[in-house]
Amino acid sequence: MSNDRQKHIKHAQKESLYLKEISRLFLHITADDPALRELHVSRVKLSPDKSLCTVYFYTPAGQEGFREKMEQLILYKPSLRHALAQKISSRYTPDLRFSFDKQFEKQKHLESLLESISKKSQ
Known about the structure:
Layout: H1 3-32, E1 40-46, E2 52-58, H2 62-74, H3 77-87, E3 95-100, H4 103-121
Parallel strand pairs: 2-3
Antiparallel strand pairs: 1-2
């Protein structure tokens, strides 16, 4: 197995571990703070040097709804990072960045386009 492939696999495993832990921790946060219940952790992306972890959220309210919750979400950033440092044994804990996940909206748009094409062809 090539060295690049091994690095890619280890990177994907680390992202998976962060997704699992962040999702679990965020579930506890939403139990305490009902205002954040409509936010859902959809995916996590680590930078190549693992110094930055971007946490992608989705909400049915869309990007505007996410922006409204962002200020409240940022308040949990230090405690979330501290909990990650305790759960995941690593030399460094990455800085967290929160972002809205546009993949679901793109998927909905593509599905509606495909549906309209199928209706026109019938």
